[in-house]
From TrEMBL:
Region of interest called Disordered, as start-end residue ranges on this chain: 49-93
Biased composition (Polar residues): 82-93
InterPro entries with a match to the protein in the record: ZBBX
Protein name according to UniProt: Zinc finger B-box domain-containing protein 1
Organism the protein comes from: Eudyptula minor
């Protein structure tokens, strides 16, 4: 008898062990291998995604010449002057 052929059921109060069938043990081992394989594949996909995202981030930084910048000085348009004067007048009231 192999000790790996036994499992303690969580619901048993006395802590009795039940012998697993050989088929069940094989199924559990197969499931473990499958989960490990899926885990490795997901880690590979995650690394690829992180690589793509960092590359895209670098590309966005390089193309920041077209980024909109606020607060640049320039001549005021007629509408801007009217709005500015109406705000000043409303503040005085």
């Amino acid at each position: 008898m192999n000790i790996n052929d036994f499992v303690i059921l969580p619901g048993s109060k006395t802590g009795t062990s039940v012998r697993l069938k050989a088929k069940t043990v094989r199924e559990l081992q197969l499931e473990k291998v499958q989960l490990e394989t899926e885990n490795k594949e997901m880690e590979k996909k995650l690394r690829q995604l992180q690589s793509n995202m960092s590359r895209e981030k670098e590309e966005r930084k390089k193309s920041s010449a077209y980024h909109w910048k606020s607060g640049q000085a320039g001549p005021m348009t007629i509408q801007a002057r009217v709005l500015s004067q109406s705000k000043e007048n409303s503040n005085k009231v």
